[in-house]
Each structure stands twice: as structure tokens, then as C-alpha cells.
Amino acid sequence: MAATIGPAGYAAWRQTVLGRTTEALEHRLIVEFAGDVAGERVLDAGCGDGLLVCALADRGAHVVGLDADRRMLVAAAARTRRRGVRATLVEGRLERLPFADDVFDVVVAVTVLGFVSDASVAVREAARVLRPGGRLVIGELGRWNTWAARRRVRGWLGDPLWKVTQFRTAAALRSLIEDAGFSVVAVRGAVYYPPVTWLARALAPADGWFGHVTTVGAAFIALAGRKETA
After folding, report:
1. Which of 42, 126, 141, 203 could be joined to 107 by an S-S link, Cβ 3.0–4.6 Å?
2. What is the CATH classification number for the domain harbouring 139?
3. DSSP bridge pairs for 64
């Protein structure tokens, strides 16, 4: 299993202006792609410390959060208790989801596929647990941008997390989910500024415009797909 950042790392990241700005842009895009989830059964696959779990539950979804890191599940449970949110939290891996076939309306996976041992298996598992016509929303680390370049250098220098990370283009992500039986309905990028605080402040207001124009240069790429019916 690859090294992970852990709850403390995420909390520290959100304490910075750069972290809050960046995560807000990513979060907004994923929630938009998930659409109206009221009354739907939603799996947050790789839920981390539960931020998205709470956001989806607030919108009326019946949320199941899954993560392979027990520390993250403890943090997610604490967050849901503080927020008064009802959600089910399960320990498990995306490559072998502990759920029956066709049980979810939506599966969301954010910055997870770049860290799993076999992304194609993980996406096929997402397809298996989704009902026909169900929606998959993924958000992944883009390949060609200043954030990825810096992270690749850190990996080359021995950082255990970034050493194993897979950065992908929009085309590669599209191919990945289409091969698993999804039709792509939306693709958009986010986070077009370098990892510099003052540039994030200056350029974040225009980030949505860039996202509608191109995914080139985006540090974060989101796709929405629909499981094809038989």
C-alpha cells in the first residue's frame, strides 16, 4: 500500500490559503458533477476524512464512505458526528469493493485512482456496484501542470507518496472509464495556477472559465460518466 498523507496532513493543508482555495475549487466541481443526489444511494470510494461524505449527505444522499486507511475512517466518523450527519463508513479497497452488484446510484472517487495498484480494476468495480444508468464521478491529478511536475521531482528524490503516483491526462481518464462500460457525459479541469499562494488568490476567480475551455494545464481533472444499460 502506498504511503498516505493522513488526517493530520489534510488538516494542515486546509489551514493554508493555498490549500483552502485549491480544495474549494475541486470540491465545487465534484459536487456539481454529482448532480441532484437527494434520496440516492451514493458511494464515496476513498472518502478520506469525510468532507465530501458530509457535503453529499447534506444534499439528501444516503452516503456510504469507503477508505483503506483506518485513520481516515476514524477522522471521517468524528466529522460526521460533529456535523450531525448520518453516513455508513466502511474499511475496504477500491479494487475489491465489499458491496453487492447494482446497489448504488452514484459512485464518487476523488484523487484515488492515481494511488491504487490497478486503476482499471477499480473502475470496473465501480461499474459493478452501480445500477444500470448509474453515475460515476472521478476527480484525478492531471499530468501536464506545474503541480504534477513538482510532485514528480519529489518522487524522483524519494518521497514515498509521489514516487508511486500516476498522473493522467483527460484522454487517459476518458479511456479508462469507457473501457469499463461508461459513457462520458462531462469533462472539466480545475486548478490552473501554480502552487503559489498569491497566484492562487489572483487566478482562482477565473479558474472556472479555464475549466470550460481546456484541461491542458489543469492540476485537477474531473469526469462524469454513466453506466451503460444492457
Report:
1. 126
2. 3.40.50.150
3. 43, 88
pTM equals 0.94
- What is the per-residue pLDDT for 7? 87
Query: Per-residue pLDDT tens for 160-171?
Result: 989 999 999 999
Question: 51 is written with which cell numbers?
Answer: 468532507
- pLDDT, tens digit, 9 for 90 and up, residues 30-61: 999 999 999 999 999 999 999 999 999 999 99
**DSSP label of 204:** G
CA nearest to 137, candidates 216, 43, 19? 43
Contact 48, 149 (CB under 8 A): no
Residue 230 predicted with pLDDT over 70:
no
Cell of 165: 503516483
pLDDT surpassing 50 at residue 2:
no
Q: Where are the beta strands (DSSP E) in the chain?
A: 41-45, 62-67, 88-91, 104-110, 130-141, 182-190, 220-227
Quote the number of domains for the chain: 1
Residue 141 belongs to what domain range? 7-227
E strand or H helix at 104, and its extent?
strand 104-110
